[in-house]
Amino acid sequence: MPISELKLAKELIRKPSITPKDAGAINIVAKNLKSLGFKCQIINFKNIRNLYAKLGTKSPNFCYAGHTDVVPPGNISDWSVNPFKPAVKKNKLIGRGANDMKSSIACFIAAVSRFKSKNKKFRGSISLLITGDEEGVAINGTKKVVDYLRRKKEKINFCIVGEPTNPNKLGEMIKIGRRGSITGNITIIGTQGHVAYPNRANNPSDIIVKILKKIKEIKLDNGTKNFQASNLEITKINIDNHADNVIPGSANAVFNIRFNNKHSSNSLKRKLNTIFKSMAKKSKCKLNVSYQVSGESFLTKPNKTTYMVQNTIKKITKIKPKLSTTGGTSDARFIRKIAPCLEFGLVGKTMHKIDESVSLADLKKLTKIYLNILEKYFE
Ligand SMILES: [Zn+2]
After folding, report:
1. Per residue in 223-232, pLDDT tens?
2. How far away, in angstroms, is 72 Cα from ligand 1 center?
3. Quick one: pLDDT band at residue 137, thresholds 50, 70, 90?
4. 69 in catalytic set
5. Which residues pair with 183 in a beta bridge?
6. Which is nearest to 252 in space by CA: 305, 199, 288?
7. Which of 134, 154, 296, 343 is catalytic?
8. For residue 73, is the peptide bond before it cis, meaning its omega torsion is within 30 degrees of 0?
9. Which of 11, 69, 100, 362 does the annotation list as catalytic?
10. Alpha-carbon dihedral sign for residues 109, 114, 120, 121
11. d(CA 16, ligand 1 centre) in Å
């Protein structure tokens, strides 16, 4: 009996696996994969459960990657159903994770169960890399599993990440890379004083405004064939001052840059630090700056597997998917270090929202797409 994607998706949604809680979600995935003959390794890092499951030992190894953790539901009374008691309404399955991305995992497992019953023997192996830490800090999830697999010399030849990639309709978009992301936190330390005697103080708010204007005006690039232009956004400006007649002693700001493969986090840091240093020197202020890099930009150059996936999606959805690098970061940023990967999943319109949902028709179609990709890959 093939596994039903709808039944499995519901079963997964019933587990309130809000990062870092697993709530039994990984075990459900493992139980289903074991029933198909997969060897399952539960890999725990700190309080996070991860799973690497494999069917077969031969090469090539086709991998599917995803996460069972979900974001919090928000105000439960705003939902039309309990977010952890999935229900079908108007041909849509509603629940937290219906879209991002428990249903996609269910579709892939359903696809494997069908593939297996049709192809008793196939040349190669199928694996799943499932983490419980994608929506959170993502330190003890895929990142560490990738290091673990590398140490074990496990070879993955191709990987599909099942994140919701389609903006409005199933079939619109495959992601073949992602922009990088770096957050900068800058503090200017001046000299506090009386507003009526500015000559005795050094106001850091003036310099922070000048610095922010300067970095906002940098033209990083014009974009590339595969990437949109890199962009900097100022996200916070903090001056902690409780009096109206005091020149503040320090001013702080935070900014984020989403960058394409014309830059690296290091090249951006160098560029910014040069500006910061010269402006702080001119204004005789002290400056502290720190950065947090969530990922470098990367691109998986389209190859024959990419086009096979693109054609398979087109055959089933009648839409030719765009090869895109837009959007935020995903675990593909870790996996691409050991395997070429692309991302294709459901329609992301309702992800992280109240009444997150997936259409039943899309569930069926995505299973069919994953099944056809497996068949073509192992042909
Ligand atoms: Zn996700």
Report:
1. 999 999 999 9
2. 13
3. confident
4. yes
5. 256, 292
6. 288
7. 134
8. no
9. 69
10. negative
11. 15
Judged on CB neighbours under 10 Å (0-12, 13-18, 19+), 289 is middle
Which residues have their alpha-adjacent CB atom under 5 A from ion ligand 1? 100-101, 163
Q: How far apart are alpha carbons 229 and 238 in whole angstroms?
A: 28
Residue 11, token pair as written in the block: 């079963």
How far is residue 309 from each of residues 33, 105, 158, 348, 379, measured CA to CA in Å? 23, 17, 12, 19, 13
Predicted model pTM:
0.88
The residue type at 28: I
In this structure, how many other beta carbons lie within 10 angstroms of the beta carbon of residue 276? 20
Residue 164 Cα to ligand 1 middle (Å): 7
Question: In Å, how far from its chain's centre is CA 7?
Answer: 25
Give the list of residues 6+ apart from residue 209 with CB closer than 8 angstroms, or none.
none
Euclidean distance between CA atoms 334 and 142, whole angstroms: 7
Closest C-alpha among 155, 30, 128 to residue 370 = 128
- Check if the beta carbon of residue 165 is closer than 8 Å to that of residue 362: no
How many angstroms does the Cα of residue 116 sit away from the middle of ligand 1? 27
- Report CA(347)–ligand 1 centroid distance (Å): 12
Residue 345 has φ and ψ, to the nearest 5°, of: -155, -140
What is the DSSP secondary-structure string of 110-139? Answer: HHHHHHHHH-SS-SSEEEEEEES-SSS--S
Rounded to the nearest 5°, which phi and psi values hold at 251? -140, 145
220 Cα–ligand 1 center, Å: 29
Q: Calculate how far, in angstroms, residue 345's C-alpha sits from the geometric centre of ligand 1.
A: 10
Q: Which two tokens stand for residue 102?
A: 């428990």
Helix (H) / strand (E) element for 275: namely: helix 265-283
Give tens-digit pLDDT for 328-367: 888 999 999 999 999 999 999 999 999 999 999 999 999 9
CB 303 within 8 A of CB 156: no
